[in-house]
Design a protein that fits this description.
The protein has about 270 residues and is of the alpha/beta class. Helices cover about 40% and strands about 15% of the residues. The longest helix has 15 residues.
Length: about 270
Amino acid sequence: MENDSSVLQIAAEISAGKNFREIDPGLILHLVKTEMQPNESEKETVKRVRSKLHQISNAYREGVSNYQDLITAIWQSDNSLTSLEAAKPLAFELMKSHASTRERIAILDVFYSQIFAALPPIQSVLDLACGLNPLAIPWMKLADHFTYEAYDIYRDIALLLNVFFEKLNIRGKADSMNLLEEFPQSECDLTFLLKTIPCLEQVDKNAGTHILNQIRSPYAVVSFPIFSLSGRQKGMKVNYEKHFLEICDPQRWELERMLFPNELVFLMRRK
């Protein structure tokens, strides 16, 4: 079963599933290759890969199989979206559809005010495994005429973000990408990597180290969840902080620690 044709066949079967068809095909193929076990049935491999995809991604979508209704809501929004400030009510509602951003919406002002107060003017942003975080642009203190580049494993999320950018005349672009095997080559002032490392390390234990070593921007914001999706803490803050300090190169980065109710944040400044 471990030949190339079997791998491609299993990946195609998973990609065709209702809850997985929007996921970047490269990630699904990567998971099939890493999760396949000798002498097991195709059915067993499919089941395990689907379970892994749920753990690292689908659980955050709260049963939303696609974002077409949200995309339609952006297009049908009235002409009051003439500024980032005016877009806040719509962005606020849209962010509720993704667990990661929903956990943050109660403190959006404090969260981004504290982060950007510690930064110089930011002209360009790279948002990795972004989810719906780019919808929080109206709360970010970005410089005039900024650019925003975002990547996620979900193609429908990328489409939604591109519609949002177009509607608000934001110079931004979004696309799908499997960060386990790819990394954007564009230059930027600030890189976001929010609550992502624990998810990717469920697939590859070295993913956090690998991604941190590829960040080229002078500033980066990396965060970790304090609570699980079920609301349990389980020592996550202590464990994630210890782990991050082990994988972040102290020769390259100065760190500033920020603690929010649901999130542990590290602001990284290149030395």
